[in-house]
Specification:
Helix content is 25%, strand content 25%. The model is unreliable at 1-10 and 157-172 (pLDDT under 50).
Length: 523
Protein backbone atom coordinates (compact mmCIF):
# COMPACT_ATOMS: atom_id res chain seq x y z
CA UNK A 1 0.00 0.00 0.00
CA UNK A 2 1.29 3.47 -0.89
CA UNK A 3 0.64 5.92 1.95
CA UNK A 4 0.36 9.64 1.29
CA UNK A 5 2.41 12.10 3.33
CA UNK A 6 -0.74 13.39 5.00
CA UNK A 7 -1.86 9.87 5.98
CA UNK A 8 1.61 9.05 7.28
CA UNK A 9 1.66 12.27 9.28
CA UNK A 10 -1.73 11.47 10.82
CA UNK A 11 -0.48 8.01 11.78
CA UNK A 12 2.66 9.40 13.41
CA UNK A 13 0.61 12.00 15.28
CA UNK A 14 -1.80 9.34 16.46
CA UNK A 15 1.06 7.15 17.64
CA UNK A 16 2.51 10.01 19.69
CA UNK A 17 -0.83 10.68 21.38
CA UNK A 18 -1.35 6.97 22.08
CA UNK A 19 2.15 6.69 23.57
CA UNK A 20 1.42 9.68 25.80
CA UNK A 21 -1.82 8.08 27.02
CA UNK A 22 0.00 4.78 27.60
CA UNK A 23 2.67 6.53 29.67
CA UNK A 24 0.00 8.38 31.64
CA UNK A 25 -1.87 5.15 32.38
CA UNK A 26 1.26 3.26 33.39
CA UNK A 27 2.40 6.09 35.67
CA UNK A 28 -0.99 6.10 37.39
CA UNK A 29 -0.99 2.33 37.66
CA UNK A 30 2.39 2.28 39.46
CA UNK A 31 1.03 4.41 42.31
CA UNK A 32 -2.62 3.34 42.34
CA UNK A 33 -4.07 1.99 45.54
CA UNK A 34 -7.16 0.50 43.89
CA UNK A 35 -5.75 -0.95 40.66
CA UNK A 36 -2.86 -3.36 40.52
CA UNK A 37 -1.12 -4.84 37.49
CA UNK A 38 -1.02 -8.48 36.42
CA UNK A 39 2.31 -9.97 35.36
CA UNK A 40 3.40 -8.56 32.00
CA UNK A 41 3.87 -10.42 28.73
CA UNK A 42 7.35 -11.07 27.39
CA UNK A 43 8.46 -9.65 24.06
CA UNK A 44 8.72 -13.17 22.66
CA UNK A 45 5.12 -13.93 23.67
CA UNK A 46 3.83 -10.76 22.00
CA UNK A 47 5.84 -11.46 18.85
CA UNK A 48 4.13 -14.86 18.57
CA UNK A 49 0.64 -13.33 18.39
CA UNK A 50 -0.99 -13.41 14.91
CA UNK A 51 -1.73 -9.67 14.96
CA UNK A 52 0.38 -6.54 14.70
CA UNK A 53 0.58 -4.69 18.02
CA UNK A 54 0.55 -0.89 18.00
CA UNK A 55 3.62 0.51 19.76
CA UNK A 56 1.55 2.08 22.56
CA UNK A 57 -0.26 -1.17 23.29
CA UNK A 58 3.01 -3.08 23.24
CA UNK A 59 4.48 -0.66 25.77
CA UNK A 60 1.56 -1.28 28.14
CA UNK A 61 1.62 -5.07 27.76
CA UNK A 62 5.36 -5.28 28.46
CA UNK A 63 4.68 -3.71 31.87
CA UNK A 64 1.20 -5.05 32.66
CA UNK A 65 -0.49 -8.15 31.26
CA UNK A 66 -3.76 -6.93 32.75
CA UNK A 67 -5.16 -5.21 35.78
CA UNK A 68 -7.21 -6.06 38.84
CA UNK A 69 -9.48 -3.30 40.13
CA UNK A 70 -10.89 -3.04 43.65
CA UNK A 71 -14.04 -1.00 44.23
CA UNK A 72 -14.21 0.24 47.83
CA UNK A 73 -18.00 0.61 47.58
CA UNK A 74 -18.46 -3.09 46.81
CA UNK A 75 -18.01 -6.05 49.21
CA UNK A 76 -14.48 -6.58 50.46
CA UNK A 77 -12.44 -8.60 48.03
CA UNK A 78 -14.88 -8.02 45.13
CA UNK A 79 -12.69 -7.21 42.16
CA UNK A 80 -12.78 -6.90 38.38
CA UNK A 81 -10.02 -8.57 36.42
CA UNK A 82 -9.10 -7.45 32.91
CA UNK A 83 -6.50 -9.43 30.98
CA UNK A 84 -4.89 -7.67 28.03
CA UNK A 85 -4.21 -10.73 25.91
CA UNK A 86 -4.36 -14.53 25.67
CA UNK A 87 -2.03 -17.20 26.96
CA UNK A 88 0.32 -18.51 24.29
CA UNK A 89 -1.67 -21.68 23.60
CA UNK A 90 -4.78 -19.67 22.73
CA UNK A 91 -3.20 -16.84 20.75
CA UNK A 92 -3.73 -18.39 17.31
CA UNK A 93 -7.52 -18.19 17.59
CA UNK A 94 -8.10 -15.54 20.24
CA UNK A 95 -8.45 -12.58 17.86
CA UNK A 96 -10.43 -14.19 15.02
CA UNK A 97 -13.48 -11.95 15.45
CA UNK A 98 -11.43 -8.76 15.43
CA UNK A 99 -11.56 -8.18 19.18
CA UNK A 100 -10.10 -9.43 22.43
CA UNK A 101 -12.32 -10.04 25.46
CA UNK A 102 -10.74 -8.18 28.34
CA UNK A 103 -13.02 -9.46 31.09
CA UNK A 104 -16.35 -8.98 32.85
CA UNK A 105 -17.46 -5.88 34.73
CA UNK A 106 -18.68 -6.94 38.14
CA UNK A 107 -21.21 -4.15 38.51
CA UNK A 108 -23.40 -5.08 35.54
CA UNK A 109 -21.76 -8.30 34.28
CA UNK A 110 -21.15 -6.84 30.84
CA UNK A 111 -18.25 -8.30 28.89
CA UNK A 112 -15.57 -5.71 28.12
CA UNK A 113 -13.81 -6.10 24.76
CA UNK A 114 -11.37 -4.14 22.65
CA UNK A 115 -11.03 -4.01 18.87
CA UNK A 116 -7.70 -5.39 17.63
CA UNK A 117 -8.44 -5.64 13.92
CA UNK A 118 -6.28 -3.96 11.29
CA UNK A 119 -2.70 -2.86 10.68
CA UNK A 120 -0.97 0.52 10.72
CA UNK A 121 -3.03 1.60 13.72
CA UNK A 122 -1.67 3.80 16.52
CA UNK A 123 -3.78 2.06 19.16
CA UNK A 124 -6.29 -0.70 19.77
CA UNK A 125 -9.93 0.26 19.96
CA UNK A 126 -12.63 0.98 20.47
CA UNK A 127 -13.49 -0.54 23.86
CA UNK A 128 -17.00 -1.88 24.34
CA UNK A 129 -19.02 -3.40 27.18
CA UNK A 130 -21.75 -5.72 26.01
CA UNK A 131 -24.19 -8.48 26.72
CA UNK A 132 -25.30 -9.97 23.42
CA UNK A 133 -28.51 -11.49 24.71
CA UNK A 134 -32.10 -10.75 23.74
CA UNK A 135 -31.96 -7.38 25.52
CA UNK A 136 -28.95 -6.29 23.43
CA UNK A 137 -27.14 -4.20 26.05
CA UNK A 138 -24.14 -2.75 24.18
CA UNK A 139 -22.01 0.29 25.09
CA UNK A 140 -18.98 1.85 23.44
CA UNK A 141 -16.87 3.01 26.38
CA UNK A 142 -13.87 4.66 24.75
CA UNK A 143 -12.38 5.21 21.30
CA UNK A 144 -9.06 3.52 22.13
CA UNK A 145 -7.52 1.03 24.53
CA UNK A 146 -5.20 3.60 26.08
CA UNK A 147 -8.09 6.07 26.56
CA UNK A 148 -10.02 3.38 28.43
CA UNK A 149 -7.03 2.30 30.51
CA UNK A 150 -5.98 5.83 31.44
CA UNK A 151 -9.51 6.65 32.51
CA UNK A 152 -9.75 3.48 34.56
CA UNK A 153 -6.52 3.82 36.54
CA UNK A 154 -6.27 7.62 36.84
CA UNK A 155 -6.93 8.99 40.34
CA UNK A 156 -10.62 9.64 40.96
CA UNK A 157 -11.91 7.39 38.16
CA UNK A 158 -14.80 5.04 38.89
CA UNK A 159 -13.55 1.55 38.13
CA UNK A 160 -17.03 0.03 38.15
CA UNK A 161 -18.49 2.12 35.37
CA UNK A 162 -17.65 3.58 32.01
CA UNK A 163 -14.89 6.20 32.40
CA UNK A 164 -16.46 9.56 31.66
CA UNK A 165 -13.10 11.10 30.73
CA UNK A 166 -12.55 8.57 27.95
CA UNK A 167 -13.46 10.14 24.67
CA UNK A 168 -12.38 13.66 25.43
CA UNK A 169 -14.29 16.78 26.35
CA UNK A 170 -17.98 16.94 25.71
CA UNK A 171 -18.54 13.22 26.26
CA UNK A 172 -22.03 12.47 27.48
CA UNK A 173 -23.34 9.46 29.34
CA UNK A 174 -26.59 9.86 27.43
CA UNK A 175 -25.03 9.55 23.96
CA UNK A 176 -26.54 6.84 21.79
CA UNK A 177 -26.42 5.49 18.26
CA UNK A 178 -28.69 3.07 16.43
CA UNK A 179 -27.38 -0.02 14.69
CA UNK A 180 -28.44 -0.21 11.05
CA UNK A 181 -29.05 -3.18 8.72
CA UNK A 182 -25.90 -4.26 6.91
CA UNK A 183 -27.89 -4.52 3.68
CA UNK A 184 -28.68 -0.80 3.94
CA UNK A 185 -24.95 -0.10 4.33
CA UNK A 186 -24.10 -2.36 1.38
CA UNK A 187 -26.53 -0.43 -0.81
CA UNK A 188 -25.72 2.98 0.71
CA UNK A 189 -23.46 5.86 -0.29
CA UNK A 190 -20.45 5.19 2.00
CA UNK A 191 -18.09 3.17 -0.21
CA UNK A 192 -15.67 2.39 2.62
CA UNK A 193 -18.36 0.92 4.84
CA UNK A 194 -19.96 -0.88 1.90
CA UNK A 195 -16.64 -2.57 1.17
CA UNK A 196 -16.53 -3.85 4.76
CA UNK A 197 -19.98 -5.48 4.66
CA UNK A 198 -19.83 -6.80 1.10
CA UNK A 199 -23.29 -7.74 -0.10
CA UNK A 200 -24.68 -7.39 3.41
CA UNK A 201 -26.66 -9.94 5.37
CA UNK A 202 -30.36 -9.67 6.18
CA UNK A 203 -29.83 -10.82 9.79
CA UNK A 204 -26.81 -8.61 10.49
CA UNK A 205 -26.83 -5.08 11.87
CA UNK A 206 -23.78 -2.83 12.02
CA UNK A 207 -22.54 0.21 13.93
CA UNK A 208 -20.14 2.79 12.48
CA UNK A 209 -17.77 3.16 15.42
CA UNK A 210 -15.97 6.11 13.83
CA UNK A 211 -19.02 8.39 13.98
CA UNK A 212 -20.26 8.32 17.55
CA UNK A 213 -21.72 11.38 19.29
CA UNK A 214 -19.72 10.85 22.51
CA UNK A 215 -18.46 8.36 25.06
CA UNK A 216 -19.77 6.29 26.66
CA UNK A 217 -22.26 5.67 23.86
CA UNK A 218 -25.16 3.25 24.03
CA UNK A 219 -25.92 1.15 20.97
CA UNK A 220 -29.67 0.92 20.34
CA UNK A 221 -30.18 -2.53 18.91
CA UNK A 222 -31.98 -5.84 19.36
CA UNK A 223 -31.52 -9.31 17.88
CA UNK A 224 -33.64 -10.47 14.97
CA UNK A 225 -34.89 -13.50 16.91
CA UNK A 226 -37.40 -13.55 19.73
CA UNK A 227 -37.57 -15.83 22.75
CA UNK A 228 -41.14 -14.72 23.48
CA UNK A 229 -42.93 -17.40 21.48
CA UNK A 230 -42.29 -21.09 22.04
CA UNK A 231 -41.56 -23.38 19.12
CA UNK A 232 -41.65 -27.14 18.71
CA UNK A 233 -37.86 -27.17 19.05
CA UNK A 234 -35.42 -26.07 21.74
CA UNK A 235 -34.14 -22.62 20.90
CA UNK A 236 -30.44 -22.12 20.36
CA UNK A 237 -30.26 -18.64 18.88
CA UNK A 238 -27.23 -16.47 19.57
CA UNK A 239 -25.36 -13.35 18.46
CA UNK A 240 -22.08 -13.44 16.60
CA UNK A 241 -20.26 -10.15 17.12
CA UNK A 242 -17.17 -8.94 15.29
CA UNK A 243 -15.13 -5.77 14.85
CA UNK A 244 -13.58 -5.08 11.46
CA UNK A 245 -12.16 -2.32 9.30
CA UNK A 246 -9.43 -1.38 11.76
CA UNK A 247 -11.96 -0.76 14.50
CA UNK A 248 -14.36 1.09 12.19
CA UNK A 249 -17.31 -1.30 12.22
CA UNK A 250 -19.13 -3.44 14.78
CA UNK A 251 -21.17 -6.26 13.24
CA UNK A 252 -23.97 -8.02 15.12
CA UNK A 253 -25.23 -11.14 13.38
CA UNK A 254 -28.33 -12.95 14.66
CA UNK A 255 -27.99 -16.72 14.34
CA UNK A 256 -31.66 -17.71 14.41
CA UNK A 257 -31.87 -21.35 15.47
CA UNK A 258 -34.93 -22.97 16.97
CA UNK A 259 -36.63 -19.61 17.61
CA UNK A 260 -38.92 -17.44 15.54
CA UNK A 261 -37.94 -14.14 14.00
CA UNK A 262 -38.89 -11.23 16.20
CA UNK A 263 -38.77 -8.22 13.89
CA UNK A 264 -38.73 -7.27 10.19
CA UNK A 265 -35.55 -7.41 8.13
CA UNK A 266 -34.09 -5.24 5.39
CA UNK A 267 -34.01 -7.32 2.22
CA UNK A 268 -31.62 -6.92 -0.66
CA UNK A 269 -33.13 -4.64 -3.26
CA UNK A 270 -34.24 -6.41 -6.43
CA UNK A 271 -33.16 -4.23 -9.40
CA UNK A 272 -35.88 -2.71 -11.52
CA UNK A 273 -34.26 -4.33 -14.58
CA UNK A 274 -33.86 -7.70 -12.86
CA UNK A 275 -35.26 -9.67 -15.81
CA UNK A 276 -32.93 -8.21 -18.42
CA UNK A 277 -29.99 -8.34 -16.03
CA UNK A 278 -30.65 -12.01 -15.20
CA UNK A 279 -30.77 -12.96 -18.88
CA UNK A 280 -27.50 -11.14 -19.57
CA UNK A 281 -25.65 -12.61 -16.58
CA UNK A 282 -26.81 -16.17 -17.27
CA UNK A 283 -25.75 -15.89 -20.91
CA UNK A 284 -22.32 -14.64 -19.84
CA UNK A 285 -21.97 -17.57 -17.46
CA UNK A 286 -23.03 -20.07 -20.12
CA UNK A 287 -20.40 -18.64 -22.48
CA UNK A 288 -17.64 -18.70 -19.82
CA UNK A 289 -18.45 -22.08 -18.28
CA UNK A 290 -20.23 -24.21 -20.90
CA UNK A 291 -19.54 -27.40 -18.95
CA UNK A 292 -21.24 -25.95 -15.86
CA UNK A 293 -24.00 -23.68 -17.14
CA UNK A 294 -26.44 -24.43 -19.96
CA UNK A 295 -29.47 -22.51 -21.17
CA UNK A 296 -32.23 -23.57 -23.53
CA UNK A 297 -34.21 -21.19 -25.77
CA UNK A 298 -37.38 -19.51 -24.62
CA UNK A 299 -40.66 -19.27 -26.52
CA UNK A 300 -42.66 -16.76 -28.51
CA UNK A 301 -45.35 -14.41 -27.29
CA UNK A 302 -47.80 -16.40 -29.37
CA UNK A 303 -47.04 -19.54 -27.39
CA UNK A 304 -47.38 -17.68 -24.11
CA UNK A 305 -50.72 -16.30 -25.24
CA UNK A 306 -52.03 -19.87 -25.41
CA UNK A 307 -51.05 -20.76 -21.86
CA UNK A 308 -53.85 -21.15 -19.28
CA UNK A 309 -52.46 -18.25 -17.20
CA UNK A 310 -51.71 -14.65 -18.03
CA UNK A 311 -48.03 -13.77 -18.45
CA UNK A 312 -47.03 -10.21 -17.46
CA UNK A 313 -44.61 -8.19 -19.59
CA UNK A 314 -41.75 -8.46 -17.08
CA UNK A 315 -41.98 -12.26 -17.16
CA UNK A 316 -42.31 -12.39 -20.93
CA UNK A 317 -38.99 -10.60 -21.39
CA UNK A 318 -37.34 -13.49 -19.56
CA UNK A 319 -39.26 -16.37 -21.12
CA UNK A 320 -38.71 -15.11 -24.67
CA UNK A 321 -34.98 -15.59 -24.08
CA UNK A 322 -34.62 -18.55 -21.70
CA UNK A 323 -36.67 -21.72 -21.38
CA UNK A 324 -34.48 -23.61 -18.91
CA UNK A 325 -31.46 -22.99 -16.67
CA UNK A 326 -29.19 -25.93 -15.88
CA UNK A 327 -26.34 -25.16 -13.48
CA UNK A 328 -24.22 -27.94 -12.06
CA UNK A 329 -25.01 -28.50 -8.39
CA UNK A 330 -28.35 -26.66 -8.44
CA UNK A 331 -31.85 -27.95 -9.24
CA UNK A 332 -32.61 -27.34 -12.91
CA UNK A 333 -35.09 -24.54 -13.53
CA UNK A 334 -37.52 -25.58 -16.27
CA UNK A 335 -39.41 -22.38 -17.02
CA UNK A 336 -41.75 -23.61 -19.76
CA UNK A 337 -44.81 -25.82 -19.18
CA UNK A 338 -45.07 -29.56 -19.71
CA UNK A 339 -41.99 -30.89 -17.92
CA UNK A 340 -42.50 -34.27 -16.27
CA UNK A 341 -40.53 -33.01 -13.25
CA UNK A 342 -43.39 -30.60 -12.56
CA UNK A 343 -45.99 -33.29 -12.01
CA UNK A 344 -47.52 -33.62 -8.56
CA UNK A 345 -50.37 -35.74 -7.26
CA UNK A 346 -53.95 -34.40 -7.49
CA UNK A 347 -53.99 -34.16 -3.68
CA UNK A 348 -50.88 -32.00 -3.62
CA UNK A 349 -52.19 -29.88 -6.50
CA UNK A 350 -55.35 -29.17 -4.52
CA UNK A 351 -53.41 -28.32 -1.34
CA UNK A 352 -51.26 -25.90 -3.40
CA UNK A 353 -54.37 -24.02 -4.49
CA UNK A 354 -55.31 -25.73 -7.73
CA UNK A 355 -55.28 -24.55 -11.34
CA UNK A 356 -54.02 -21.07 -12.07
CA UNK A 357 -52.49 -20.43 -8.64
CA UNK A 358 -48.87 -21.44 -9.25
CA UNK A 359 -46.33 -21.93 -12.02
CA UNK A 360 -43.98 -24.89 -11.44
CA UNK A 361 -40.26 -24.40 -11.96
CA UNK A 362 -38.24 -27.28 -10.52
CA UNK A 363 -38.33 -30.53 -8.64
CA UNK A 364 -36.00 -30.35 -5.64
CA UNK A 365 -34.72 -33.55 -4.07
CA UNK A 366 -33.40 -33.80 -0.53
CA UNK A 367 -32.67 -37.35 0.55
CA UNK A 368 -35.94 -39.30 0.25
CA UNK A 369 -38.04 -36.12 0.15
CA UNK A 370 -39.11 -33.87 -2.71
CA UNK A 371 -40.34 -30.32 -3.03
CA UNK A 372 -41.72 -28.28 -5.90
CA UNK A 373 -40.27 -24.83 -6.59
CA UNK A 374 -42.95 -22.58 -8.03
CA UNK A 375 -44.00 -19.01 -8.72
CA UNK A 376 -47.17 -18.03 -6.94
CA UNK A 377 -49.79 -16.43 -9.16
CA UNK A 378 -52.76 -14.19 -8.45
CA UNK A 379 -55.60 -15.52 -10.65
CA UNK A 380 -57.60 -12.32 -10.19
CA UNK A 381 -54.92 -9.93 -11.44
CA UNK A 382 -52.61 -12.21 -13.42
CA UNK A 383 -49.63 -11.11 -11.31
CA UNK A 384 -46.62 -13.41 -10.93
CA UNK A 385 -45.28 -13.04 -7.42
CA UNK A 386 -42.81 -14.72 -5.14
CA UNK A 387 -41.01 -18.02 -5.65
CA UNK A 388 -41.52 -20.69 -3.00
CA UNK A 389 -40.45 -24.27 -2.52
CA UNK A 390 -43.18 -26.50 -1.03
CA UNK A 391 -43.11 -30.11 0.12
CA UNK A 392 -44.68 -32.12 -2.72
CA UNK A 393 -45.54 -35.53 -1.23
CA UNK A 394 -49.21 -35.23 -0.20
CA UNK A 395 -48.92 -37.09 3.11
CA UNK A 396 -45.90 -35.04 4.16
CA UNK A 397 -47.48 -31.73 3.12
CA UNK A 398 -50.75 -32.59 4.83
CA UNK A 399 -49.08 -33.36 8.18
CA UNK A 400 -46.09 -30.98 8.03
CA UNK A 401 -46.94 -27.97 5.85
CA UNK A 402 -43.42 -26.66 5.30
CA UNK A 403 -42.28 -24.26 2.61
CA UNK A 404 -39.40 -21.90 1.89
CA UNK A 405 -39.60 -18.42 0.41
CA UNK A 406 -36.75 -18.58 -2.12
CA UNK A 407 -37.13 -15.36 -4.13
CA UNK A 408 -39.28 -12.28 -4.49
CA UNK A 409 -39.91 -13.04 -8.15
CA UNK A 410 -38.78 -15.18 -11.06
CA UNK A 411 -36.16 -12.59 -12.16
CA UNK A 412 -34.92 -12.42 -8.57
CA UNK A 413 -34.52 -16.21 -8.49
CA UNK A 414 -32.60 -16.17 -11.78
CA UNK A 415 -30.28 -13.46 -10.45
CA UNK A 416 -29.68 -15.58 -7.34
CA UNK A 417 -28.80 -18.57 -9.52
CA UNK A 418 -26.38 -16.40 -11.48
CA UNK A 419 -24.75 -15.13 -8.28
CA UNK A 420 -24.38 -18.66 -6.89
CA UNK A 421 -22.83 -19.85 -10.14
CA UNK A 422 -20.39 -16.94 -10.15
CA UNK A 423 -19.41 -17.70 -6.55
CA UNK A 424 -18.99 -21.40 -7.39
CA UNK A 425 -16.74 -20.46 -10.32
CA UNK A 426 -14.59 -18.32 -8.04
CA UNK A 427 -14.23 -21.18 -5.55
CA UNK A 428 -13.35 -23.60 -8.32
CA UNK A 429 -10.78 -21.13 -9.61
CA UNK A 430 -9.25 -21.10 -6.12
CA UNK A 431 -9.04 -24.89 -6.09
CA UNK A 432 -12.04 -25.52 -3.81
CA UNK A 433 -14.25 -27.15 -6.46
CA UNK A 434 -17.58 -26.16 -7.99
CA UNK A 435 -20.05 -26.45 -5.13
CA UNK A 436 -22.87 -23.92 -5.25
CA UNK A 437 -25.00 -23.67 -2.11
CA UNK A 438 -28.27 -25.51 -2.71
CA UNK A 439 -29.74 -26.68 0.62
CA UNK A 440 -31.62 -23.41 1.12
CA UNK A 441 -33.93 -24.33 -1.78
CA UNK A 442 -35.51 -27.16 0.21
CA UNK A 443 -37.98 -26.44 3.04
CA UNK A 444 -36.87 -26.43 6.66
CA UNK A 445 -33.14 -26.84 6.12
CA UNK A 446 -31.84 -24.15 8.42
CA UNK A 447 -33.19 -20.77 7.29
CA UNK A 448 -34.79 -18.38 9.77
CA UNK A 449 -38.40 -19.04 10.79
CA UNK A 450 -40.99 -16.27 10.65
CA UNK A 451 -43.75 -16.90 13.21
CA UNK A 452 -47.07 -18.19 11.85
CA UNK A 453 -49.88 -16.38 13.66
CA UNK A 454 -53.55 -17.24 14.05
CA UNK A 455 -55.27 -15.10 11.44
CA UNK A 456 -57.67 -13.65 14.00
CA UNK A 457 -54.72 -11.54 15.19
CA UNK A 458 -55.15 -9.57 11.96
CA UNK A 459 -58.80 -8.70 12.60
CA UNK A 460 -59.42 -5.00 12.15
CA UNK A 461 -56.21 -4.44 10.20
CA UNK A 462 -56.13 -1.50 7.80
CA UNK A 463 -54.34 -3.76 5.32
CA UNK A 464 -57.06 -5.33 3.13
CA UNK A 465 -55.10 -8.55 2.60
CA UNK A 466 -54.67 -9.06 6.35
CA UNK A 467 -58.26 -8.09 7.10
CA UNK A 468 -59.58 -10.56 4.51
CA UNK A 469 -57.37 -13.33 5.88
CA UNK A 470 -58.78 -12.73 9.36
CA UNK A 471 -62.18 -13.89 8.08
CA UNK A 472 -60.93 -17.42 7.37
CA UNK A 473 -61.99 -20.32 9.61
CA UNK A 474 -60.62 -20.64 13.12
CA UNK A 475 -57.32 -22.48 13.24
CA UNK A 476 -56.01 -20.89 10.05
CA UNK A 477 -52.49 -19.53 10.46
CA UNK A 478 -50.68 -17.03 8.30
CA UNK A 479 -47.32 -15.40 7.67
CA UNK A 480 -46.85 -11.96 6.14
CA UNK A 481 -43.98 -12.60 3.73
CA UNK A 482 -43.24 -8.90 3.17
CA UNK A 483 -41.18 -8.57 6.34
CA UNK A 484 -39.15 -11.80 6.29
CA UNK A 485 -35.72 -12.58 4.85
CA UNK A 486 -35.18 -14.31 1.54
CA UNK A 487 -34.77 -17.22 1.93
CA UNK A 488 -36.94 -18.00 4.96
CA UNK A 489 -38.40 -21.29 6.17
CA UNK A 490 -42.12 -21.25 6.96
CA UNK A 491 -43.01 -24.15 9.26
CA UNK A 492 -46.62 -23.88 10.33
CA UNK A 493 -46.54 -26.98 12.51
CA UNK A 494 -43.86 -25.38 14.73
CA UNK A 495 -46.20 -22.65 15.93
CA UNK A 496 -47.07 -23.07 19.59
CA UNK A 497 -50.83 -23.18 19.02
CA UNK A 498 -50.80 -25.22 15.78
CA UNK A 499 -52.98 -28.31 16.41
CA UNK A 500 -50.61 -31.27 16.45
CA UNK A 501 -50.96 -33.42 13.33
CA UNK A 502 -54.26 -31.81 12.35
CA UNK A 503 -54.30 -32.24 8.55
CA UNK A 504 -53.79 -29.31 6.21
CA UNK A 505 -56.61 -28.46 3.85
CA UNK A 506 -54.74 -26.05 1.58
CA UNK A 507 -52.13 -23.35 1.31
CA UNK A 508 -53.13 -20.05 -0.23
CA UNK A 509 -50.96 -17.11 -1.18
CA UNK A 510 -53.02 -13.89 -1.34
CA UNK A 511 -51.46 -11.11 -3.39
CA UNK A 512 -49.33 -13.58 -5.39
CA UNK A 513 -47.41 -14.49 -2.27
CA UNK A 514 -47.71 -11.36 -0.19
CA UNK A 515 -49.12 -13.66 2.50
CA UNK A 516 -49.14 -17.41 2.94
CA UNK A 517 -52.10 -18.96 4.74
CA UNK A 518 -52.55 -22.52 5.97
CA UNK A 519 -56.16 -23.67 6.30
CA UNK A 520 -56.97 -26.82 8.27
CA UNK A 521 -59.35 -29.62 7.45
CA UNK A 522 -62.57 -29.38 9.39
CA UNK A 523 -63.11 -31.59 12.38
Amino acid sequence: MIRTGRARGALVGGEAKAMARADEALAALRVSGTVRPIAPFTADALDAWPITLPAAVRRVLLEAGGIVTVDPDRPEGDTDTYRFGPAAEYASRAFRDGYWGLGERGGDHLQVMVGVDGTDRPDWGPVLAASFGEDGDVWVLAPTFTDWLAGLVAPGSDAGSAPTRAGGTGASATASVSAVPSVAVAEGPDAELAALVGRGDQLTDVVDLAKLPGYPCRVIWEPYYSLEFATADTGGSEIEAAICGGGRLLTLHSVVSGDFLGRPVRRHTVPADAGARAVSELRDLAAEFPARVALTPGCTDGEMDRWPVRVPAGIREVLREIGAVRISGLPHLLLLPGASEHQVSPETHAMLGGDGTYWPLARIDYGPYTALAQIRLDPATGAWGCAVSVMSAPDTLREFPDLTLIAESLPDLLLTYARLAREAAAREGAGAGWRPEADWLFPNTGEAWPRPVPVEEWAGSADPLLAAAAELPAGTHGVDLRAVPVPADVSFHRAEDWPYRHPLKRLTFPGAGTLVLAELEEG
